[in-house]
């Protein structure tokens, strides 16, 4: 490097400028010594920076010596912690700390000078200091270095047994001790609730057996046993969310709860509303033509309703899958539960509209005649479901943000709602039927046994030239055909009226046969005229009883309907009871 210099003699006189060439020494040309301890009197840690310098002679440079700078390290801090990402600072001590990296991290301490262990080991997130009562919740670097040196020399040490933090409770991002951060579910309460729900679910197979075993009993035959089993299937799905909700909330359990609830609702209450709709259609008919809506027709409509619900559920699962959200309990702990968004609100509104249509149908059929009051029980079930579902949807708002979360209370509320709706509905539908079967089963069996005995004894009186169906058709055509369409029970089962007519005639025939045998015994003690008159009186009494059962005979057969005064002449069939007995025997012929 060429430079200009001049000699200076004093403040006023300077020599002329002279050109000179020197070698410029850069920082990279120097050399840093290793840290060393000065034992020559200073007794301090030092480092020396040495640089060369050159001379110039005979138009050439030559090495002349070195120049060094001694640096006192006692006031220089050592940073043994790892360098941050992207740092370009030169630090030969970086990463030389002895913190347990599994649970702690190194934090440098300023102002301690040139000494090893100028750092502290602080617990990482999700870990806490073992001594929760300590004033300083970290490990000093000097202690860590000391124990590490003892471990290297294989001396007794506590390096591997100490200087490690403990993990926080599950779900805690930061903590100061081992206290839980997530609300623990009350498994005792949940187990009791699940046990009660399981016992109630076990009643569904019993009710299915009941509908199969007593399907020929009038009270079950009138209510369509097949539809009753479908309602039980839907009730089973409505109970299933209690099983799924027993476990901790997850995406799978949230999806299953939503699917089971909606599918069960569409099956169970869809069948109930369709039964009510059939009654309303038959009850409101004004024409003489009979309307036939079979169970198969209702099942087809029910399949359409279930498919609509399934399409909505599929769209929700694909486009807006339920999530598990984190809330806060009143105790400050975290609580996890299924999310509630506009998909859930849409499903609740759809259920409410569906039930409101059912309420309208119930109002229409409130005056419809029904022998076993099934329409009334269905109406009560629909009213109950509508009110309680509205209450549940409103109460669910208070279990979401910003309100405190309580999964156990939510599980209990859903259980109570399920029992007050589904269980009460099943009680309405099957309670009266079970009571009726219990009260009338013995009587019906006794009547059937007596009837079979009479048929065996009097089989010779039964002609076989004319079928029962043909005779029934004759009686129906002679009566009032339009009355058949006005009966709601016919709409529930298209063959119910005809079978009941046959059953009534069989009962009447049995009574007449008993009366005939009794009269044959009395022939030896009474006169011929009284013996002839007595059967006619009894026959008129039987006709009166037959007239009282107008749910089955009055509008169907026409007997004692068009001309009630003919009952005095053997129910309008003939002048004496013998002719009427012959007609009854003809009807029974098969």
Automatic annotation (TrEMBL):
It is found in: Cell projection, Neuron projection; Postsynaptic cell membrane. Its main location: other. The keyword Cell membrane applies. It is a multi-pass membrane protein. One of its GO terms (molecular function) is G protein-coupled receptor activity. The chain crosses the membrane at residues 187-214, 226-247, 298-319, 346-365, 377-398, 410-431. Residues 206-453 form the G-protein coupled receptors family 3 profile domain. Pfam families: 7tm_3 (PF00003), GPR158_179_EC (PF22572). Keywords: Cell membrane, Cell projection, Disulfide bond, G-protein coupled receptor, Glycoprotein, Membrane, Postsynaptic cell membrane, Receptor, Signal, Synapse, Transducer, Transmembrane, Transmembrane helix. The keyword rRNA processing does not apply. Belongs to the G-protein coupled receptor 3 family. This is Probable G-protein coupled receptor CG31760. It comes from Octopus vulgaris (Common octopus). The lineage of its organism: Eukaryota, Metazoa, Spiralia, Lophotrochozoa, Mollusca.
């Amino acid at each position: 490097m060429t430079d200009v210099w001049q000699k200076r003699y004093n403040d006023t006189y300077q020599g002329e400028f002279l050109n000179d060439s020197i070698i410029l020494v850069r920082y990279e040309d120097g050399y840093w010594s290793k840290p060393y301890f000065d034992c020559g009197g200073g007794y301090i840690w030092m480092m020396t920076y040495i640089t060369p310098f050159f001379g110039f002679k005979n138009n050439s440079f030559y090495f002349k010596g070195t120049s060094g700078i001694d640096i006192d390290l006692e006031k220089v801090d050592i940073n043994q912690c790892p360098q941050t990402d992207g740092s370009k600072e030169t630090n030969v001590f970086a990463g030389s700390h002895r913190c347990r990296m599994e649970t702690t991290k190194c934090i440098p301490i300023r102002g301690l000078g040139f000494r090893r262990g100028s750092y502290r080991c602080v617990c990482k997130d999700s870990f806490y200091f073992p001594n929760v009562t300590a004033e300083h919740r970290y490990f000093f670097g000097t202690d860590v270095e000391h124990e590490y040196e003892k471990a290297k020399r294989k001396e007794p040490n506590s390096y591997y047994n100490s200087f490690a933090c403990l993990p926080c409770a599950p779900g805690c991002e930061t903590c100061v001790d081992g206290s839980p951060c997530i609300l623990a579910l009350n498994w005792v309460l949940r187990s009791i609730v699940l046990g009660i729900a399981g016992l109630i679910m076990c009643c569904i197979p019993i009710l299915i057996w009941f509908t199969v075993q007593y399907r020929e009993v009038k009270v079950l035959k009138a209510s369509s046993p097949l539809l009753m089993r479908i309602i039980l299937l839907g009730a089973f799905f409505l109970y299933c969310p209690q099983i799924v909700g027993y476990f901790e909330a997850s995406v799978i359990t949230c999806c299953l709860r939503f699917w089971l609830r909606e599918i069960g609702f569409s099956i169970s209450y869809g069948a109930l509303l369709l039964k009510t709709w059939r009654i309303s259609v038959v009850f409101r008919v004004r024409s003489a033509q009979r309307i036939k809506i079979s169970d198969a027709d209702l099942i087809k409509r029910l399949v359409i309703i279930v498919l609509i619900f399934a399409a909505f559920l599929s769209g929700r699962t694909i486009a807006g899958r339920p999530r598990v959200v984190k809330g806060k309990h009143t105790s400050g702990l975290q609580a996890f539960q299924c999310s509630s968004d506009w998909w859930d609100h849409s499903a609740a509104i759809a259920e409410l509209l569906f039930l409101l249509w059912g309420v309208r149908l119930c109002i229409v059929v409130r005056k419809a005649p029904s022998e076993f009051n099934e329409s009334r029980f269905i109406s009560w079930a629909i009213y109950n479901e509508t009110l309680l579902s509205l209450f549940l949807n409103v109460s669910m708002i208070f279990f979401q943000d910003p309100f405190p979360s309580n999964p156990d209370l939510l599980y209990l509320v859903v259980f109570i709602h399920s029992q007050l709706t589904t269980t009460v509905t099943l009680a309405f539908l099957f309670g009266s039927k079970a009571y009726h079967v219990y009260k009338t089963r013995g009587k019906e069996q006794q009547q059937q046994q007596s009837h079979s005995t009479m048929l065996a004894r009097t089989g010779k009186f039964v002609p076989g030239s004319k079928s029962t169906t043909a005779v029934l058709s004759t009686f129906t055509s002679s009566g009032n055909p339009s009355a058949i369409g006005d009966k709601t029970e016919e709409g529930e089962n298209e063959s119910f009226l005809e079978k009941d007519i046959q059953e009534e005639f069989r009962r009447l025939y049995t009574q007449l046969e008993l009366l005939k045998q009794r009269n044959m015994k009395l022939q030896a003690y009474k006169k011929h005229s009284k013996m002839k008159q007595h059967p006619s009186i009894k026959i008129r009494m039987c006709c009166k009883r037959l007239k009282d059962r107008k749910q089955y005979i009055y509008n169907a057969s026409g007997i004692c309907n068009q001309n009630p005064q003919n009952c005095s002449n053997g129910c309008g069939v003939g002048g004496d009871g013998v002719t009427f007995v012959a007609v009854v025997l003809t009807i029974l012929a098969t």
